[in-house]
Amino acid sequence: MAVDFAGIVADNQSMVFSIAVRFLRDREGAEELAQDVFLQLYQKLREIESPAHATGWLRRAICHRCIDEARKRKLRPRIGLDAVPEPLAESRNPDLLLNERLRRMVEELPESARMVVLLRYQEDLDPGDIAEMLNMPVSTVKSQLHRSLAVLRGRLEKQEICR
Amino acid sequence: MNFDDELRAALQREPAPADFAARVLGKTTKTRALPLWRRPAALAIAAALALTALVPSAVYQYRQHRRAIEARDQLILALSIARVQLQQVRERIQHNTRHKI
Fold first, then answer.
1. ipTM surpassing 0.90
2. How far apart are alpha carbons A28 and A31 in whole angstroms?
3. For residue A8, how many other CB atoms are within 10 A of its CB?
4. What is the pLDDT along chain B (101 residues), one digit of tens a residue?
5. Which site among B5, B14, B19 would you substitute to test the A interface, given the most A Cβ atoms closer than 10 Å to its Cβ?
């Protein structure tokens, strides 16, 4: 079955870019990586059977590319402006402030836990799907989710008390 | 709203930069527009063909070289045998001449 590449890009650009930017915390690097993943898919387009297959392929590819990139960056640290948190403006909508605080706290989680949380809450995947995608046991995914939620709750409560 | 929902709300997908799709599609067009002789696959085929053309000639030259070495060795062996035989004949002649005197 022939798939429309332009349609695949339009439908999945937000998913691929969001995973990359939240995992890498660097917009420029995330955009580069996301483009690369789409070009990789373009070269394998003949193997893609349906739009759903393309979405799954892209999600898996961007997750693994992000993890590889993070490992490379540990060897060659690259600090972009995005890595420096913007000061929170007090006058903004409290929901938006909460969202921003939560996103920042997720970005501070260890790599593996961060990817698990992103796939669970951004992509709405089940622990079984996450385990398959990241090649790890379901029990590890569940325990990482459990621990990450506890850490995030704890940090949020601490921030609330300090405010 | 419980914590799970708060997280879901915070982690909603972010839109990609406005020109993202255009840039990806632009890069695929560039890949397609590469002239045949600059495509990696074409270069690989050309290199393979060049190798295929060069290999038989190299093998032929190597065999010729081996044959020449073998011929030279055989000639050296023949000359050394001839030298030994001539030496023996000379010794016999000298011996006979001494007896007659």
1. no
2. 5
3. 23
4. 688 899 999 999 999 999 999 999 998 887 665 666 667 788 888 889 998 888 988 999 999 999 999 999 999 999 999 999 999 999 999 998 887 76
5. B14
Give the integer Cα–Cα distance in Å for A95 and B89: 119
Is A78 found in the same domain as A99? no
- A108 and A77: one domain? no
| Token reading at B95 | 């011996």
CATH number at A30 reads 1.10.1740
Range of the structural domain that residue A145 is part of:
92-163
Those residues of chain B whose CB sits closer than 8 Å to some CB in chain A are 3-4, 6-17, 20-21, 23-25, 27-28, 31
Query: pTM to 2 decimals?
Result: 0.67
Of A84, A106, A136, the domain-final residue: A84
Distance CA B28, CA A152 (A): 41
Q: Which residue has the tokens 């890498």?
A: A24
